[in-house]
Amino acid sequence: MSVATVSAPFDEMLVGGIPRSTHRALFTTLEELGPEGLAERARQRDSYLDRHGITFTLGERERPLPMDLVPRIITPTEWQSIEAGVIQRLRTLELFLADVYGEGQVLHDHVIPRTLVTSSTHFHRQAWGLKPVNNVRIHVSGIDLIRDEHGIFRVLEDNLRNPSGVSYVLENRRTLAHVLPEVFAKHRVRSINEYPERLL
Question: What is the pLDDT of residues 144-156, one digit of tens each?
Fold first, then answer.
C-alpha cells in the first residue's frame, strides 16, 4: 500500500519568510494594518458586498460573495504567459467543437470515445453541420486558474456555457479598490473597466 504525499502549497507572497520583490509593498501595507485593521477591512468588505447586493446562494441562504482581502499579484511576464496559454486553449477548444459538429475526425480516429461526446447533455445534435459565419462558437469563456505547488499556473476548469464568474471579477475589483485603496495607490493595477464594452 502506498501513501500519497501532499506537497505544501506555493506561497505567492513569501520565500523563506521574506516578501518576494513583487509583493513587498503589499506586505508592508498588510503589516501596517495589522490583524485588527485587516479584520476591520473584512467587515467593510462584507458590508460593501451586502449593500450592493453582491451575493451568491448556498443552499437556501444568500451570503456575501467570498472574497479574499489579499489581492493576487500577477506580473506582466506571468500575464503574457497566461494570455498566450488561454488563447491557445480557446483555439484548441474551437477546433474541437468545429470537428465534433463537422467532420468528426476526433471521433472517427477514436481520440475521444464517440459516446462520451454524444451522450453529453451539452451535445446538441441539431447543431451538427452548422458553421458560424465567423467560425466562432465560444463567444465568452471563464478559465479558472490555480497555482500548483511550484507556482505554475494551471487550468482548473473551462466555463464556456455561462461564465458567471466574469461579473464577480468586476465586483471583486471594485470592492477591493473601495476597501483597500492604499494597495491600489502603491501598485500599477491594470484596469478592467473596459471589459463590459469589449464584450460587445
Answer: 999 999 999 999 9
